[in-house]
C-alpha cells in the first residue's frame, strides 16, 4: 500500500483551520484538512490539498520523521507537520501537547506547541472564542510557520 505523505495535516476546518489551509496552499504546502463535520471546502480540493469532511480524528502519533493521524473510520493519514484547529472542544486530541492551567494549548509567538512540528490555532490555544478575525490571522500565521518549519526539516 502506498502512503501519501502530506506536508501538513490540519485538524479542524472552522475559521482558523480554513485560513491555515488556504495560506498553506498559497505557499505550495501539500495539505490535508480533516474535520468531524462536512463543512465543505470544495474550492480547496486540488493539487495542493485535500479536504476530508466527516473525518473525526481519534489519534495522532509522532513517528521518527512524521506524524500519523487516524480517523474514527480507521483511515490513517501521514504528515510532516500538524496544525490543531479544533476549537475549545477539541477532545482528547489535544493531549499530545502541553496545556496551560486554563486548558488551552500552550503556543509560542508562531503558534508552535511544545511538540516539534505541531502548531495550534483558534479556540484551542486561547480564550478569544468567537473572534473570527483573530482565528483567521492565527491560521495564516501558523501556515507561514509551517512553511519555515518544513524548510528546516528537509
TrEMBL record:
Q: What is this protein called?
A: FAD/NAD(P)-binding domain-containing protein
Protein's UniProt keywords contain Oxidoreductase: yes
Chain ranges of the MnmG N-terminal domain: 7-34
Q: Which InterPro entries match?
A: FAD/NAD-bd_sf, FAD/NAD-binding_dom, Ferredoxin-NADP_redctase_2, MnmG_N
Per UniProt, which keywords does this protein have?
A: FAD, Flavoprotein, Oxidoreductase
- Work out whether the entry's keyword set contains Flavoprotein: yes
Cofactor (UniProt): FAD
Q: What is the scientific name of the source organism?
A: Candidatus Doudnabacteria bacterium CG10_big_fil_rev_8_21_14_0_10_42_18
Read off the Pfam families from this record.
GIDA, Pyr_redox_2
Show where the FAD/NAD(P)-binding domain sits.
55-131
Which Gene3D superfamilies does the entry link to?
Answer: FAD/NAD(P)-binding domain
Q: Which GO terms describe its molecular function?
A: oxidoreductase activity
